[in-house]
Write a structure and sequence with these properties.
single chain; 434 residues; alpha+beta; Ubiquitin-like (UB roll); Creatine Kinase, Chain A, domain 2; 9-stranded mixed beta sheet; 6-stranded mixed beta sheet; 13 helices; 17 strands; globular; binds glutamic acid; binds magnesium ion
Length: 434
């Protein structure tokens, strides 16, 4: 008898969605089957949309019933070989057995928001997610923010990550040692509409992949300790017309924003405290949204102010953008960008204007003066944020029938799971997952 040759592992491709818990979940299939799976999809279970970050399933209307399909989008295929391993995945939409968009699909939530923007203003959004994380491959002490030593110490992690992003169709921009201990940040060029959120998901997974192949982790949890430095995910946005022309800026106007840009930003500001339930949607998120961390605590617009919730960033017409800072990596990028676009379209439809900037610098105002100027505080907890979302009639339209209730239920369940834990324990639980 001939001796059999040693087994070679098959090349598998993972077909997944970034779900409500901001986890990429799905199934892997032989890579050779991808062409047919691109046409027919991969079966999935409805109740899985209610799996919490910690692996429990919140009560859902689905129970054990039903069938849905993950339909991979070939434009999101990531296929790299690094550190002796292959990272091969493809992001998907969730459709019904009849091929219709599934009402609870996060990618569809963003798609519907983008369609509304297109119909309301003939625009799309150009966006980039600026993501901070902790890289465990370096020493925590001494911390040397922005230093060449911190850059040197991380070895080739940053270079490999940039190569992985580029090989996956992104345009890496900068890699830097941020202010916190072991904290780094990587930025990529903005992308249009859905692609921006796809890239945010791909970037997180590639950072985790490159780190883990070196025996380390890239941790995107908002706070690793209750009194630490936060990891923000700042969402930069501008509007682009049908021919790709910049539509956000207009010289000579006091805000620097065009009328449509101002309506869009004013819509986000108007809905802002409630938006936190979608963009900072974890118990851990609210350790970050506290004073003196360069993270926002009030629903305000600032001109070049990095403590503001919305920062109007300077730049030429093509670079000019608005940065939304009430976001972190516990948010699903499709849900976060979708909610911001929906809120912005509400502002366009209602022709909202921004309030006059307060006469005093925001930092010099006390709380009473801030309230007096009509500025609202951000929620102090996930529970508070969820109640604000529940009381937002427009959100019912954004989500569609049943989805808002499902989302609120899902998030309340996550909040309950953290009840009674010490703050450090809460941070540890999120850091272990994110
Ligand atoms: N780490 C800060 C945050 O939690 C942001 C620092 C910065 O401005 O980049 O949002
Ligand atoms: Mg930063």
């Amino acid at each position: 008898m001939l001796a059999s040759s040693p087994l070679e592992p098959e090349d598998l491709v993972f077909i997944g969605i970034c779900d409500l818990a901001a986890q990429v979940r799905g199934k892997s299939i032989p890579a050779a089957d991808l062409p047919s799976r691109l046409l027919h999809g991969v079966g999935y279970t409805p109740a899985n949309i209610c799996i919490s970050p910690f692996g429990t399933i919140a009560s859902s209307p689905f129970g054990t019933l039903g069938d849905i399909v993950l339909m991979p989008d070939a434009s999101t295929e990531v296929n790299i070989v690094e550190g002796g391993g292959r990272e091969h995945f493809c992001l998907a939409d969730i459709v019904t057995a009849d091929g219709e968009p599934w009402p609870y699909c996060p990618r569809n939530f963003l798609r519907r928001a983008l369609e509304r923007l297109e119909n309301a203003a003939g625009c799309t959004v150009l966006a980039s997610f600026e993501q901070e994380f902790v890289y465990t491959g370096v020493a925590a002490e001494p911390k040397r923010a922005y230093a060449l030593t911190s850059f040197r110490e991380q070895g080739n992690f940053g270079g490999l990550l940039m190569a992985a992003l580029r090989a996956s169709g992104m345009q890496p921009d900068a890699f830097l040692a941020e202010y916190g201990a072991r904290q780094y940040e990587i930025t990529v060029a903005p992308a249009l509409g859905m692609r921006a959120a796809d890239e945010a998901v791909m970037l997180r997974e590639l950072a985790r992949s490159i780190a883990s192949r070196a025996g380390n982790r890239a941790i995107f949890a908002p706070m690793l300790s209750p009194d630490g430095i936060g990891n923000g995910t700042h969402i930069h946005m501008s509007l682009r017309g049908a021919a790709g022309e910049a539509k956000m800026q207009e010289a000579g106007r006091s805000t620097g924003l065009s009328p449509i840009g101002e309506h869009f930003v004013a819509g986000i500001l108007d809905h802002m405290p409630a938006l936190a339930a979608i963009t900072t949607p974890s118990v851990d998120s609210y350790f970050r949204l506290t004073p003196d961390r360069w993270a926002p605590t009030w629903a305000n617009v600032g001109y070049q102010d990095r403590a503001a919730s919305l920062r109007i960033c300077p730049g030429s017409a093509s670079q000019f953008n608005v940065e939304y800072r009430v976001a972190d990596a516990t948010a699903c990028p499709y849900m976060a960008l979708g909610a911001l676009v929906h809120a912005g379209v509400d502002g366009i439809e209602r022709k909202l204007s921004l309030p006059q900037p307060p006469s005093k610098p925001f930092a010099a105002m006390d709380d009473a003066e801030r309230h007096g100027a009509g500025i609202r505080p951000l929620p102090r907890s996930l529970g508070e944020a969820i109640e604000l979302l529940r009381e937002t009639p427009a959100a019912r339209e954004w989500f569609g029938p049943g989805f808002l209730e499902l989302y609120i239920n899902f998030k309340l369940d996550e909040e309950r799971a953290m009840t009674g834990l010490e703050p450090q324990e809460v941070c540890d639980r999120y850091a272990a997952i994110f």
